[in-house]
Amino acid sequence: MDQKTTIKLIAIDASSTCTGYSSFSVNLLDHTFIHLETNSISSSKKNIYARYEVIHNKFIELGLYSNYDIVVFENYAFNGNRVTQLAELNGLLKYNYYLNSVPIEIIAPNTIKKLVTDHGHASKDKVRKSIQEKSELKNVKLKNNDESDSLAVGYSYIKKTLKELEDMENKNE
């Protein structure tokens, strides 16, 4: 991140059938954030590459590749037999952020769970319930787990980053 005082962040939960995203405005001076949006992009196309195209084109249409100062992805936590599809989609999305000079950050799944639920091995259901209990996010309406996961990715990255900034500031005093 550069020396801006406020950054616009997008958190992505990539999935080849429904990709969730959440955006935030983060004030680095007063260590606060505002949730801007959580939504998802679905595709029911049978062909996997046609699904990637739908998701990619929607990202372009909505300006999701270029209107942010930073993008955060959950580090690979793939379950099941669709590992290759998820890796390909993540690569496509990350490459387009790279092309738009948006810094890419990665956060570990256990870090997300720990920061959201206080337990590094929490279930997906526990993460969803815990994220909806956060005072800053109580009014966010979630339609699916992909939206919940993107919200948790963004929230945990923000909390981790603001804590690191606070620790640095305290150390320099």
How would you characterize the overall build of this protein?
The protein is α/β, with parallel strands linked by helices and 173 residues long. The chain is built from five helices and five strands, in the order βββαβαβααα. Strands 3-2-1-4-5 form a five-stranded mixed β-sheet, sandwiched between helices. Helix 3 packs across helix 5 (145-172) and helix 4 packs across helix 5.
What's the short story on this structure?
The protein is of the alpha/beta class.
In whole angstroms, the N-to-C terminal distance is 22 Å
Share of helical residues: 40-55%
Q: Name the average pLDDT.
A: 91
Q: Over all CA atoms, what is the radius of gyration?
A: 16 Å
For the biggest sheet, the summary is: 5 strands, mixed
- Derived from helix and strand composition plus strand pairing, the structural class reads alpha/beta
Name the helix and strand elements from N-terminus to C-terminus, one letter apiece. Answer: EEEHEHEHHH
Strand order of the largest sheet: 3-2-1-4-5
Give the percentage of residues in beta strands: 15-25%
- Strand segment tally: 5
Low-confidence stretches: none
Net shape: globular
User: Number of helical runs?
Assistant: 5
Set down the secondary structure blueprint.
Blueprint: E1 6-13, E2 18-27, E3 32-42, H1 48-62, E4 70-74, H2 83-99, E5 104-107, H3 109-117, H4 124-133, H5 145-172
Parallel strand pairs: 1-4, 4-5
Antiparallel strand pairs: 1-2, 2-3
Helix pairs in contact: 3-5, 4-5
Features:
173 residues; alpha/beta; 5-stranded mixed β-sheet; 5 helices; 5 strands; globular
